[in-house]
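Subject: design request, 505 residues
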């Protein structure tokens, strides 16, 4: 094939008058019309001088047009680099410089802020707003609606997704065509997607879940997407009767369960509910079953690996587990000290290998070597065990990570910022239970001798550097941080001490 990812996701729908996307105002776009728009975008990229392998940094609102940018990158052999719309200019600056992006496509409202960053990084700046309008789209209107697809092989890079690290420096995970395609195909098959499905899509599309799981599967199956800009409870309840499948993070499901309109009647016609990105509590799984009769299908993945495991579509979906390794994916539990494979039921680090596993971190060979073994196994940083029936259980994390509403937050990045604030000697950032987001961020500070740090001023200062979802919901001053005999901060003790902070809604 000329371009395996483009051909499988997009090219095969050429000229098809089937519905691809239905927006909340009920306007529909056919596969054919969508591909014409994507072709026009691919022409704009080429006219701007971009060449295959160039990075395209994109921070725009979720829209039909933003998916067309993804399709255009695939067709033109460019590397798609989507960025969370919540990121601050400071965060964007790092990604643009680090990736050496050739172009920054941003919302018109952020253009003024991002222009100096783009200039400094030697990138072109173009705009596209939530309605799909802007300097980029303007140029597209003049372009032909057909584009000669750039030849690519399955090992060529298709996307960079940045994921934070324990050192506080974000790493660009390099994903190949094969990574995305093999995973999309296996999920389409195992979850029995067909062209008659209708996918309710309320996830953001700058992460694996909303983009490579939800969107790619719908494209591979050729089914319709009910495309919502974000999770809005009223809209979801309104539109659910039109859907057959929904994908979400656990917060989606807890919010639905708390609404009296969410009943068995409303969900009876549904074929499948999928959850991932964060642990789905057993209690949520059981409550969902009690109210709707549906067993949520929980799966487990990572930016670096796409999806690794899934509960079965047919067979028992076991609460509190993430099911079995997907077809073609090998998973083992190993001793973190020796790397030796552990027997069933023993807890160790989860390692995975397969066509889903990324190529490495962009420009970070040492980091890549630390996490990706020479034999192809990737050390996920998650701790788990495999039970007697083969179900994988995630029991904890070997990495200092907080997951809030499905977003990953690495404490180190926040601690580095807190440590340099006036009057602060040191800090520890931990995740504590939160009824809506699962976990939320708090920052524990120790003052310099004799200093009285102004917590409000600190909050305001760090807000200019950190996306809102990473900012601590609370800053707490302690005399000292709990440490073990080796002097290491005992984060577990802090998590326990403050576990009730957000106990009730
Ligand atoms: C929004 N806020 C948050 C979060 N989202 N705070 C903490 N954690 C969050 N996740 C803050 C906003 O900054 C704002 O703060 C306030 O909450 C309300 O914002 P709003 O946008 O209205 O929030 P929301 O619409 O209620 O969003 C919550 C959400 C959303 C629906 C849970 O965060 C979401 O869609 N999460 C999904 C994330 C996801 O797709 N993750 C996959 C990545 P203030 O009011 O103070 O200004 S992980 C992945 O891809 C791996 C591979 C995998 O396995 O899937
Ligand atoms: P990310 O780095 O954003 O790709 O997030 C990946 C991390 O999310 C994994 O390493 C897990 O810690 C977590 N994760 C994803 N799915 C699940 C799940 N179903 N249960 C528990 N944790 C999950």
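Subject: RE: design request

Done. Sequence follows.
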């Amino acid at each position: 094939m000329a371009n395996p990812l483009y051909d499988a996701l997009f090219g095969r729908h050429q000229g098809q008058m089937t519905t691809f996307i239905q927006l909340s105002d009920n306007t529909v776009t056919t596969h054919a019309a969508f591909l014409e728009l994507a072709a026009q975008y691919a022409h704009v990229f080429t006219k701007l001088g971009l060449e295959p392998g160039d990075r395209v940094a994109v921070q725009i609102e979720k829209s039909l047009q933003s998916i067309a940018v993804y399709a255009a990158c695939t067709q033109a052999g460019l590397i798609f680099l989507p960025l969370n719309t919540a990121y601050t200019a400071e965060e964007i600056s790092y990604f643009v410089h680090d990736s050496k992006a050739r172009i920054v496509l941003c919302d018109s409202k952020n253009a003024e802020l991002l222009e100096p960053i783009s200039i400094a990084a030697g990138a072109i700046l173009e705009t596209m707003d939530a309605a799909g309008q802007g300097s980029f789209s303007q140029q597209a209107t003049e372009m032909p609606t057909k584009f000669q697809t750039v030849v690519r092989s399955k090992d060529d890079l298709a996307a960079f997704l940045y994921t934070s690290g324990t050192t506080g420096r974000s790493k660009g995970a390099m994903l190949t065509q094969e990574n995305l395609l093999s995973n999309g195909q296996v999920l389409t098959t195992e979850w029995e997607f067909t062209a008659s499905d209708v996918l309710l899509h309320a996830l953001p599309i700058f992460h694996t879940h909303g983009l490579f799981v939800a969107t790619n599967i719908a494209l591979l199956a050729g089914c319709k997407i009910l495309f919502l800009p974000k999770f809005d409870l009223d809209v979801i309840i309104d539109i659910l009767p039109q859907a057959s499948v929904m994908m979400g993070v656990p917060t989606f499901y807890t919010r639905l369960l708390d609404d009296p309109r969410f009943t068995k009647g409303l969900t009876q016609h549904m074929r499948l509910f999928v959850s991932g990105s964060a642990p789905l509590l057993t209690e949520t799984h059981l409550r969902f079953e009690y109210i709707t009769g549906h067993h949520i299908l929980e799966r487990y993945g990572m930016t670096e690996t796409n999806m690794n495991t899934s509960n079965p579509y047919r067979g028992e979906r076991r609460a509190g587990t993430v099911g079995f390794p997907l077809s073609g994916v090998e998973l083992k539990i190993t001793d973190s000290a020796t790397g030796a494979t552990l027997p069933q039921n023993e807890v160790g680090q989860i390692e995975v290998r397969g066509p889903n596993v990324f190529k490495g971190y962009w420009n970070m060979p040492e980091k890549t070597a630390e996490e990706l073994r020479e034999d192809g196994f990737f050390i996920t940083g998650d701790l788990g065990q495999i039970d007697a029936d083969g179900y994988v259980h995630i029991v904890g994390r070997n990495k200092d990570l907080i997951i809030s509403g499905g977003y990953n937050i690495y404490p180190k990045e926040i601690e580095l910022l807190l440590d340099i604030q006036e009057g602060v000697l040191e800090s520890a950032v931990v995740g504590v239970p939160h009824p809506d987001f699962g976990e939320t961020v708090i920052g524990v500070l120790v003052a310099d001798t004799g200093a009285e740090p102004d917590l409000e001023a600190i909050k305001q200062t760090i807000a200019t550097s950190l996306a809102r979802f990473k900012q601590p919901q609370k800053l707490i001053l302690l005399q000292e941080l709990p440490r073990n005999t080796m002097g290491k901060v005992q984060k577990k003790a802090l998590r326990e001490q403050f576990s009730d902070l957000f106990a009730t809604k």
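The chain has a mean pLDDT of 97.
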